Amino acid sequence: MEKPGLLPLLDARLPLTEEGVAEAARLAGVSLAQAWGVVRYYPRYGEVREGRYLVDDPVARARGIGSLLEGTVGTHPPLGLEALAPAYVRVEGEERWVEVGGRAEPFATFRLPFALGHGRKLLPPEPTDTLEAYRAQGGLRALEAARKGDLTPEALLKAVEEAGLLGRGGAAFPTHLKLRAVARGEAPRYLVANGDESEPGNFKDRFLLEHHPFLVLEGALLAGFAVGASRVYLYIREEFQAAIRGLKEAIGALEEAGLLLVPTEVFQSGGLYICGEETALLESMEGRRAEPRLKPPFPVEKGLWGRPTAVQNVETLAAIPRILEGLEAWRREEPKLFSISGDVAAPGLYELPLGTPLGEALRRAGGEPEGLKAVLLGGAAGVFTRDFAFPLRYRERLPLGAGAVVAFGEGVDLWAVLEGLAHFFQEESCGKCFPCPLGTTVQLALVQRRVRDARLVEDLASTLKGSLCGLGQSAYWAYRSLLEVEGAA
Amino acid sequence: MRLKVDGKEMEAREGALLLELVQVPTLCHHPHTETRGLCRLCLVEVDGRLSPACATEAREGMEVWSDTPGLRALRKTLLEWLLLTTDLSLAPELQALALALEAEPGRWGEVPGRKGREAIEDNPFFLRDYAKCVNCRRCVDACGDGIMGVYALTLTGRGLLAHPTTPLDRPLPETPCVFCGNCVQVCPTGALRPLTEV
């Protein structure tokens, strides 16, 4: 059952010594072998070189990474800074800084500019980072109702079902089915908010966590209440230090107001793309290498510590209070967040109704579809497309992913962008199953040679499809789609 | 219990693994360890989804396909990638499988791999030659949860760089290793092999 997590114990002992690792292993009640496997897995337990790093995202690749790399010691995985790209990370001793447009700010205080957000429901036009501000804008009513017994778990589940809410993390699984499955399980049950957003091109969860922590928390507590969770965990990407601090303060404020219906805590993520995969996420929380589990069993049956667990994306949870506010209004609009970046006049985060044509979404951000070479839809696990009439909706011809839209103008070398994505997959493959580490390595070599052999790419696809988890299963989408876009051009 | 395998009706006992019912290659699976579902060579199509035969139980009414064009492409390609990246010279079964699948690794061009790793000789009994390691984890499991409960082996790195190592990367004699030889026994590629027989 539940023991102190190995990752927090290691974090408390940074920079690590052999004695520190042994002590953390002892306190966590795990073998030194397990602790060492963990230390040798997560980047932050290895040696971190000081210096300036280019944030290697699709926008930086489109601008030409060669010149951007001058004066750096290497690259850093995407950080949700695409709307501000090119961005840099500076590491000095224990301190990390975000550098954008010549200005540097420590991770501890850096947040995405509030002006990047454009919306009403999921993105209130005013900041809601205090309890008073959130309440003044109509927040907390559902939570109050749940506390008083005016809102039952069943009524809540029913509303989520009638809203037709699909998971906003990319898999688009019906939220009510997941919640109901956990609610049916035996206690103790858990709810985990997945705030490990690492998909290149996406910055919606980062923005929500940084600017609307009470909205996310209310959603998480309502979902936790609905499934009868004995604890809610907010699993937050470790790099989002300002968000983590804001969430901790928000938890305190809710507790003081008597509204923390379920004990809630923040868990700092393992700091890798794979940590967003729900079973890998659970492995990291249990103090192991974040490697996906074989499914079945699914987390709703055997999740955290073997208990029924609902892992829900941050945006999915933020939608729940809004649904309870007014089901009809929600269904009319079905708001979804789109992270729009690249060659548009006003990159940012846009709340748009599901079904909005891609071209219109681009125009909202000041883009001109006619002048674009292509758009990367969904992120690294996404596709290049020129279908600007495509309705941005789940379960259509193209994957929406978590809602990333990266626009590339006529001058952009799309193969350079693709190379960045291929490099990302190769770096982020965990190495547990065979097709993924092999296939992502082969893919990078092919992309670097700009191989356009459709037969080879089909075999690459057939093989990556056999990977254990979604990372490998989607790793070839962008490559194959670029060949299609080129063929159609 | 009845199910359909490659278009033919079949009788199976409750809880039987699909691996017992179909002819598919395996690599990571070993009866004495818990490793399963990693190499993906034994993938079959179950009701339209890819599932590892070594980790999937037969169910009433299941429809299983073990030899579709997609699965053939996957097995052949996987073998090609293993040959490209890993020294399989002491893995005759994999070589035979590559031959049977008509693997042509050359069609992928140059791919960086793990053949350049130097062998580690840190004890008088066996060699750890990770240039030959496909990272199936049988040794790690045999040492730990699967057989011995000794925990002298773990994993280092991620992606294609991941491979077994010892706690704190120490020489084996400085770990809990008792030199039982189980890890050597379960290694399918000769990455772990007795020094006396080299």
UniProtKB/TrEMBL annotation, chain B:
Pfam families in UniProt: Fer2_4, Fer4_9
Domain 4Fe-4S ferredoxin-type: 124-153, 164-197
PROSITE patterns: 4FE4S_FER_1, 4FE4S_FER_2
Keyword Metal-binding belongs to the record: yes
GO terms of molecular function: 4 iron, 4 sulfur cluster binding; metal ion binding
Alphabetic keyword roster: 4Fe-4S, Iron, Iron-sulfur, Metal-binding, Repeat
Name of this protein: 4Fe-4S ferredoxin-type domain-containing protein
